Amino acid sequence: MSLLKFLAINALELSAPATPHLLQHQQAHTQQKPQGWMQLSGHPESIVPTSTGIVRKRISGLEDSEVHAYRLICQEPQTAQIVPAYFGIQEMQSQHFIELQDLLAGFRDPCVMDIKMGSRTFLESEVSNAKLRPDLYQKMIAVDAGAPTAAEHEARAITKLRYMTFRESLSSSHSKGFRIEALRLRGRPPVKDLKTCRSSEQIAQTIEQFLAARRSVQKELLKRLKHMRLVIEQSSFFARHEIIGSSIFIVYDDDRVGVWLIDFAKCRELPPQVRVDHRSAWTPGNREEGLLRGMDELIRSFEEVYARCGSHRSCLKI
């Protein structure tokens, strides 16, 4: 299958929506959005853009999990460098917003990629109910009639856990610990339907197209991804928390490269007796989510593309 044909395939709705941090290009009738504002995926209604280099993201309240996460991250200088800058909370029209750094500020017509991290992108609490659900069985067979077991076909129902793990298996989340949610190439509309980009070759081709044989960008991205991995490995915050549904946000133009870990809405503090390494396989109750396993695989994928572009094999160019 050609890359262009592959990119045109509509993806299935997966367990965690892509981060709403990337905002859509300014519409002519929307005066509040600054020029160059884009959203690759997610829920634009949760974002209030400003013209001051700040993103306001709607939260549930003062005790929101994301607020808790950023407040703790700010206490670790090295960790704070790999996430958007945190500026506090604002209340507007009886709603609360967290104020974060606008990661697109200062970039000119950039290339952008949103990568959902983790081999599990749902909370254990979301799948704790063992009730058999006919509606989820119908959703499963609509995608793959051969996916249910004989017992599930007979019951014509499955649990939510079974359905969620089935959906994860449709992307590279299960096999590699990350999935490319969406990307935007310079001068082109965003490509949003990438959740079924699963094989190593599909991933490598997508990264190649995104990087456009720019060796300096490839080298800088690898440097920053490896630094981010080291910071996470050494961070007290990450040692004490389960990180679900976070994304790596990559942006570059002719002059600058940026890489951040974003979206901590499903970040949860671990019980005192629970320890995670972010690489081990998940079993219900151990709270492992595969964040660092995904980073290992993502770095390996970028290294493969870097090696390809250094060989005689031609790379895809924008």
TrEMBL record:
One of its GO terms (molecular function) is ATP binding. It comes from the Eukaryota. GO terms for biological process: inositol phosphate biosynthetic process; phosphatidylinositol phosphate biosynthetic process; response to oxidative stress. Its EC number is 2.7.-.-. InterPro entries: IPK (IPR005522), IPK_sf (IPR038286). GO terms for cellular component: cytoplasm; nucleus. Keywords: ATP-binding, Kinase, Nucleotide-binding, Transferase. Belongs to the inositol phosphokinase (IPK) family. This is Kinase. It comes from Drosophila yakuba (Fruit fly). The gene is Dyak\GE18870.
